[in-house]
Amino acid sequence: MLDSLPYSIFKRKNRPFYMVSFKNEITGEYLPTISTKQATKSAALKTVLEWLRTGIPQRGNPVITLKMLTLRSLFRESELIQEDAVFFIEEMKHRHLIRSAVFTGTKQDRDFGQFLVDYWTWDESEYIAEKLRRDHSIHRTYARSQFLSVQKYWVQAFSGKTLGGLTRDDIEDFIKTFEPMQVSATRKNQILKAGLVPLKWAYKKRLIDDNIGAGLTMFSGEDAERAILTPEIAKSLFTQIWIDERARLANMLAMVTGMRAGEIQGLRVQDMGNDCIYVRHSWNYQDGLKPPENNKSRTVEVPFPYLIRELMDLASRNPHGCNMDSYIFWSKAMAEKPMENNLFIQALRDAIIKTGINEKEAVKFTFHGWRHYFTAYMKDKVCSAITICSLERSITVIEEKRAKSPVIRSWKSWGIQLSALVLFCIAGVGTTMTIPLPPSPL
What we know:
The protein has 442 residues and is mainly alpha-helical. It has helices at 41-54, 66-77, 82-94, 112-120, 126-133, 140-157, 168-176, 185-204, 231-237, 245-257, 261-265, 305-316, 342-354, 359-362, 369-401, 406-424; strands at 7-10, 19-22, 34-35, 56-58, 61-64, 276-279, 282-284, 288-290, 298-301.
């Protein structure tokens, strides 16, 4: 009769209170004993019956039913395999008790900080290797910049976190630490993307269950205004004596084409056309000679014949010799590398100071600012100059047919004059120059 009861009440020698052991409902074995805190058996029995009805108290936890106590006992004593664990985890996910879990030895069981470091390490990154295999553009300088951001900001903040154990709340809390930081919104977002981009990749590769970085509110706000030279200063700039002739030509080329510093460094003799430049490469210290941005070559019209001639003349003065593979903006130290782009900006700021601008203001101008200058002041004028050059080419064809015609010679002279003046009338600076049209050549 007593064996049929789901519990056993007893008192141990030298103990003031009665104890109870509940039976495992499945195996029939007794579970660990619990003190009823009652000194008489009748009071202990009353307590036990109340526990069966309302739940059994647990140290430091809410009360649980005998059924749940039985399940917990079975769980502790069972020899579980990974399939069992997967079943329990999926069931808890289904019941919305957990969002994710990390299994020992899986890809998710990986230190998050180390994952980020590996992701941006050029020779170890699966992501970079995949990009290169599929001919996507990625440069060592970009990877190095992201690597440094990860090391400085992300690794310490997520010390001890696994890739699979990371939550959206972790990322949100991390973003909050950037709110008081005295850097631009753009810089904050760059630092955040150093970690969010790898997380998105991990989600695509099914290394994590959720893209926890998606839809986050990034920082906004106006960056410091970019300093762009005025046409008047630009005109004065190129009348100064430059500390490096190569840098002068590099700055002039950037002004009239909007080319990037790396693209100018990567120019070789074989890239020069009669009235254009074939932008096939870019140069940086980490990668050397690489395809230009987005892996797309392009042709840049240069409707200033004398500038093309100056660039070719510069190439001919290469101390290491001149051939089709030689750099236009050669290095004095070695033949296999172009000049450093920091010389571009040093010479630019020196020339700016010579125009009368103080050093404090001069340092606000960057070589990249020429791209913005080109868009603001030069783009339309260069297009007009290209049209003029097309007219010159058309006139040349006509001249071949009617070479002795004085009218044709008059038109060709007019086209050459106007082409030469375009660069020096950068944005309509100074007095308006008028060149009267000659008689019609046709």
